[in-house]
Amino acid sequence: MLKVGTSITLELLADKQEDIEKFKCRLVDHSEEHIFIDYPVKLITQKTAFFFEGTQFQASFLGEDGSVYWFETEVLGRLKKNIPVLMLSFPGNAALVRVQRRQYVRIDTAIDVAAKGKEGPVQFTTVTSDLSGGGMAIYEPNGTSLPTNQLFDFTLVLPMNDGEYHYIDVLGSVVRSSSKKGSHLTAASVEFVELNEKHRQLIIQYCFEQQMQMRKRKRL
User: Fold this and answer.
1) Helix (H) or strand (E) holding 34
2) What is the reported pLDDT for 100?
3) Which of 55, 51, 3 has its CA nearest to residue 26?
4) Which segments constitute the Type III secretion system flagellar brake protein YcgR PilZN domain (predicted)?
5) pLDDT at 18
6) What span, in angstroms and rounded, lies between the C-alpha atoms of 116 and 25?
7) Contacts from 109-115 at CB under 8 Å and sequence distance 24+?
8) What is the pLDDT of residue 114?
9) What DSSP string runs through 116-179?
10) Phi and psi at residue 187, in whole multiples of 5°?
11) What 3-state DSSP class applies to 217?
């Protein structure tokens, strides 16, 4: 299931934590009971993080079947392979929990989006092809493919039914890139990594409003 090079997201398991801290790393090696990762990078700051032995996480990764899998793990030590790595516990493939990716309703919609890369001076504006409370698909600039796992600060413009416009800031990670059927355009699937819950609820409300409008049109 896990393959070398797989991108893994780590969430600190801490009591009474208001804002969940998330970190990105890559799988360097693995055995039946252990995984070895490069030093994690905190998503918000993009700075390398250091952890003591015994630090516990909830880990998740995207499987080849398009589903997200998660497991609980903890830091067991530091090792030197080709690069410095952390050794974490691994419960085995049988203990992995599969998470349904469609936990939020996804709708086809075109809203304005501004994007700024976390790494390098990449900036562009575009529109979505679909949207949900957990992510979106955006048309890529000039037909170029955005690198997988690249992080962007996005600003979404939500036009609500009451005439109000809401500007939603979200940190997103590019999951994959693909050609749109019947079009020369390509779209990047983006997973929301850091999103204020109030803003997530606004996105869900917008999706619900659009669904209701589509149902009304079908009745006419």
Assistant:
1) strand 34-38
2) 52
3) 3
4) 3-91
5) 45
6) 21
7) 109/207, 109/210, 111/156, 111/157, 111/158, 111/159, 112/156, 112/157, 113/138, 113/154, 113/155, 113/156, 113/157, 114/154, 114/155, 115/152, 115/153, 115/154, 115/155
8) 95
9) EESSSS-EEEEEEEEE-SSEEEEEPGGGPPPPTT-EEEEEEEEE-TTS-EEEEEEEEEEEEEEE
10) -130, 145
11) helix
How is residue 109 written in tokens?
A: 């919609």
Q: Which residue has the tokens 């952890």?
A: 51
Q: Which of 95, 49, 97 is nearest to 75 (CA)?
A: 49
* Distance (Å, whole) CA 194 – CA 160: 22
In order of 32, 33, 44, 79, 206, the CA distances from 86 in angstroms are 16, 14, 21, 6, 42
Q: How far is CA 164 from CA 160, 198, 202, in A?
A: 5, 16, 11
**Residue from 146, 148, 142, 147 nearest 184 by CA:** 142
User: Which residues does the chain have with pLDDT short of 50?
Assistant: 16-18, 101-102
pLDDT in the model for residue 16: 42
- Burial of 48-81, coded b for 16+ CB within 10 Å and e otherwise, reads ebebeeebbbbbbbbeeeeebbbbebebbeeeee
**Looking at residue 37, what DSSP letter applies?**
E
Neighbours of 168 (CB within 10 A): 20
The predicted pLDDT at position 137 comes to: 93
The phi and psi torsions of 50 (rounded to 5 degrees) equal: -120, 135
For position 147, what pLDDT does the model report? 85
